[in-house]
Amino acid sequence: MAEAAAHNSEPAGVLKVSMSPSIGLPYILPLLPPFLAKYPRIKPEWHFENRPVDLIAENYDAAIGGAFDLTPGLVSRKLAPVHVVVVASPAYMSGRTPPTDPSELAVFNGIVMRSLHTGRIRQWMFRSAKGIEVAGTLTETIVVNDPAAMREAARLGLGVSLIALFDVLPELERGDLIRLLPNWYADAGAISLYYASRTHISAKTRVFVDFVVNAFKSERLDLRFASSLG
Predict the structure, then answer these.
(1) How far is it, in rounded angstroms, from Cα 29 to Cα 112?
(2) What does 90-126 look like in DSSP terms, one character per residue?
(3) Of 86, 88, 91, 1, which Cα lies nearest the Cα of 41?
(4) Mean pLDDT value across residues 198-203
């Protein structure tokens, strides 16, 4: 009803969005003040959750994350790549010889994540600047089920972690973590924005999609989240 009342003026109504905490809290939530300043009649209902939701069945207007099945009726807009990198704290690496390729990772204490969907530890195939591919496997010293927990365990000096670059970008920039094997990364797909492909999407969803896409471009997050090789 609010949407209909504001049809000829400005977007309005509840905007229900699902997003992973690791992308939503540091990168999407800070967009809320300028977004609401521009669209004050929109009421955000944002869910921070590590699961692919059913947009239509659960009545979401949009979702941000990865690993969604692009079922009929959904549209995806790619925001940035997801590149997995190798990190550890300076304290943990003190006195240790850094690895020269991913095959040497097994000698370190590994901080790994168990998938909520499959129950398995995710394995990664790393690619070098020269296009060489080598499997990177960590010893399962510490097992968690959340990327933030992996990052914090690595920051505490408990071992080496294979984690998405966007999850640890601030820590790398501050020096809390260091990147091992800087010329290697694993491709884990993309962060995308998903919404229903109705003929006429609601004004609130349309302006939200445009706002997020433009913010990622203006802040060059697609480049910051990509592993630079060479």
Answers:
(1) 27
(2) HHHHTTSPPPSSGGGGGGSEEEEEB-TTT-SBPPEEE
(3) 1
(4) 76
CA neighbours within 13 Å on the CB side: how many for 3?
11
Q: What percent of the chain has pLDDT over 90?
A: 70
pTM above 0.90, yes or no: no
Bridge partners (DSSP) listed for residue 191: 80
Helix, strand or coil, per DSSP, at residue 179 = strand
Beta bridge partners of 144: 113
**68 phi, psi to nearest 5 deg:** -85, 140
Interval 113-127 mean pLDDT: 84
Total residue length of the chain: 230
**To 5 degrees, how large is the angle CA 49–CA 53–CA 57?**
140
User: Within 10 Å of residue 164's Cβ, how many Cβ atoms?
Assistant: 24
Residue 123 token pair? 């394995």
pLDDT band at 67 (very low <50, low <70, confident <90, very high): low
Overall average pLDDT of the 94-111 stretch:
96
Q: What is the mean pLDDT of the chain?
A: 89
* Residue located via tokens 């090789």: 229
